[in-house]
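WARN  no MSA supplied for this record, continuing single-sequence
INFO  ligand: heme C
INFO  echoing inputs
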Amino acid sequence: MKGSFQLIVTFVTFLLSATSCYYDNEEALYPSLNTACDTTNVTFSGKIVPMLANNCLSCHSNATAATSGNGIRLEDFADVRSQAAAISGAINHTGTYSPMPKNGSKLKPCLITQFEIWFKNGTPNN
Ligand code: HEC
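INFO  complex generated
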């Protein structure tokens, strides 16, 4: 009797330890995280506007720039084009530019890559 109890305890302990280490695989759970960075269809309207809207316009929209964005507007095409070199330095955290997004974590590499493509293409209004 004592022997079979010990056997059960041993078995349960084994089961618990065998199943306790389970790691979720992020890429399996969220396949969208694994999609490749789109570097071929980089347009102002398709890639740059959403990036700015999601990460920058809280401080740099026409309405918020004066109070939160040091007067720098990044909502209209002409404003973004004129700031393109500074944006590049700010999001890459290079040169003497203030790192952006301010007080936030650096943008995802894909977003930076797409901005650089648009910038090197001559900041087209497409
Ligand atoms: C929380 C508010 C906030 C957010 C979000 C933000 N900025 Fe800024 N940004 C500022 C402020 C304030 C300044 C003025 C410089 C400073 O205080 O660092 C600034 C300065 C800048 C400058 C000028 C940098 C220089 O040194 O000349 C650029 C370009 C810029 N921001 C672009 C961006 C971009 C692009 C994003 C989004 C990826 C962004 N900012 C997100 C508040 C913000």
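Residues 55-56, 58-60, 68-70, 72, 74, 83, 86-87, 90-91, 97-98, 100-104, 107 surround heme C (CB under 6 Å).
INFO  checksum written, moving to next record
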